[in-house]
């Protein structure tokens, strides 16, 4: 008898599993004994309907059919278990799971991100082996998902494994070190170990600047996280200084993108930053803007700078309404300062947005 469960508007059929003794299947999520089987791919198993539903929403819907050739134990596949073709398919699955997990994390869907991050780690172990530095991205995804769920002991264990893999790989590049220190900094911030958090964020900034440069938007993410620690310590002048640095870095980078957009071929922000990055940047800039707007002694120059960043971000992201809203906020703030150097660029952006709303296809007949 089939058990059916509704998943995100789709009926996912599950069939009871009868495995020969000694050949028990394990649940995809918890690795306990499985009692159900996915009726679509028939190579994925679950202990109960709840775990099937969580996996379907989290990642399985995206990769269900990918798993059939990898998990079907034919003589041909066993002979070619280590073949380049199979390794490439697994590498593709790792990338799919990484992108799905990162996207869900950017949306704050930490529970839904877990299945994708877990599968990413298991598949990475299959391809690269245990305790290798290539597992670090998957460890960090799992750590971020668990941090959002408040599972700090699990986060500490995952980051410990990631740190051990990095320590065993002296050839490991600065990009991996930067991501690891950023995650460790976030963990120590959550646990209240603020001095350790500052140390890790300092290392994060150092390694990010080695890989991407001091003026990189990746590097300035460390400044923003460090500012949060100083806020918890009550050191507001340092926070404001770091916020100013973050805003200036983003302003320079977005201004370059906007100039390229206007002077050459129009392009959307997604060509430079994926959706997860856009969400993260928007959240960061909004946090800085709201902080300044709520201050008793408002810094109009900082409000104009950050709001202009948000206006450019949303214009390049294709949302004219938000671009106009933030652009208007930026203009009002800049006009409070005589001869402010941002007033003209902000007015130019507002005119550009309004002209595109009037004629979305300029130059067309």
Automatic annotation (TrEMBL):
Domain MYND-type, chain residue ranges per copy: 27-64
Key words, A-Z: Metal-binding, Zinc, Zinc-finger
UniProt cross-references to InterPro entries, sorted A to Z: TPR-like_helical_dom_sf, Zinc_finger_MYND_domain, Znf_MYND
Protein source organism: Lates calcarifer
GO molecular function terms listed in the Swiss-Prot or TrEMBL record: zinc ion binding
Protein name, entry field: Zinc finger MYND domain-containing protein 12
SUPFAM superfamilies for the chain: HIT/MYND zinc finger-like (SSF144232)
